[in-house]
Amino acid sequence: MLNTLKLVAVDEHQTKGVLYQVQIDDVPLLDMFTEFESRYSKSINGAYTDTLTSDIINTSLSEVGQRFTPLACDCGVWECWFVTGEIVMYDEFVCWGKWSNPYRSDRTRKAQGMFWNYKEFPAIVFDTQQYQDEINQVLSTHQTKR
């Protein structure tokens, strides 16, 4: 089954501009990660905020093999806690996968509960045309606001 991407303007960062929420089949990606991470922690699961700006959407979401950061720490210092994914593009499909939180990627710390296995988070697969149309919609909206 193919997923549907929506990029919804949700906030404005004081220096980075409009922030976009990623929705997969009308479900915020943040909600998906909050639920997934609840198997590892009930206190810091989903402690993220939306971080995609039009510049990031323009430079990262259309590049093959590109890693991107759709969610970062909700404390305001994005670098202190974040999730990255990798984009793989085919002729007809775009796939988001290889999810990671670098602060939970050390397998040797599994016994302490410090390793979270993001391989179990599902890959997200889009139709290339729908995916590109959504990106183009955001970019055209952003250009008209300048």
Folded structure, characterized:
With 146 residues, the chain is of the alpha+beta class. Strands 4-5-6-7-8 form a five-stranded antiparallel β-sheet. A hairpin with a 2-residue loop joins β2 and β3. The chain is globular, with a radius of gyration of 15 Å. It starts with a strand and ends with a helix.
The largest β sheet comes out as:
5 strands, antiparallel
Residues in β-strands, percent: 25-35%
- Low-confidence regions: none
How far from one another are the termini? 37 Å
Number of helices: 3
User: H/E order of the elements?
Assistant: EEEHEHEEEEH
The dominant shape is globular
Assembly type of the chains comes to single chain
**What percent of residues adopt helix (DSSP H or I)?**
10-25%
The overall strand count is: 8
Q: Kindly state the mean pLDDT as a whole number?
A: 90
- The strand line-up of the biggest sheet is 4-5-6-7-8
Output the radius of gyration.
Answer: 15 Å
Which structural class do the helices and strands define? alpha+beta
